Amino acid sequence: MRALVLVCSLKRSPAPSSSELLGREILAALADHDVDGEVIRVVDHDVKYGVTADEGSGDAWPSIRTKLLGCDILVIATPIWMGQPASVCKVVLERLDAEIRESTMYGKVAVVGVVGNEDGAHHVTAEVYQALNDVGFTVPAAGGTYWVGEAMGKVDYADAGPKPDTTGTATKTLAANAAHLAKLLNDSPYPSS
């Protein structure tokens, strides 16, 4: 099975990104369940604004979409900004809107990772889940993992030290449930409507 991690950090590479770190940790946990994949930091690509599969000349979304169509599991990794998913995450969700009428995401699993120095991880996760479900993705039980530091704090996820009993446990559960559900959907797809 294959996973695609879309990192919705506002920071371009090679700047450190807590969202990318969490996304890579999710991918590593999925590898324990025979899932491989890749990480794409969305801001490193010229993804145009819009709600179609291809917004024309220079749009990088079609190549990302091709990779998405070839995966079983989508991971959205986003920071929290002002209690909301990052604007980059919202652009990704808007681009996925093109898939509603196509049913191309049915049978695919989606999970969410959230980081930030303010409250709102459950709210952000819920917003992203609902959008992904509208497009046709299936969300597994405990399909979210997050870390939030002190509000207005200066400690990043990478600097917060080991979190094996908190974010680490949630990430492992997310990976196990996502891989299990993806296998079930591969073996027994949704019926056509």
TrEMBL record:
Sequence ranges assigned to domain NADPH-dependent FMN reductase-like in this UniProt record: 1-148
Top-level taxon: Bacteria
MF terms (GO), sorted A to Z: oxidoreductase activity
InterPro entries: Flavoprotein-like_sf, FMN_Rdtase-like_dom
A Pfam family matched in the record: FMN_red
Name of the protein described by the UniProt record: Flavodoxin
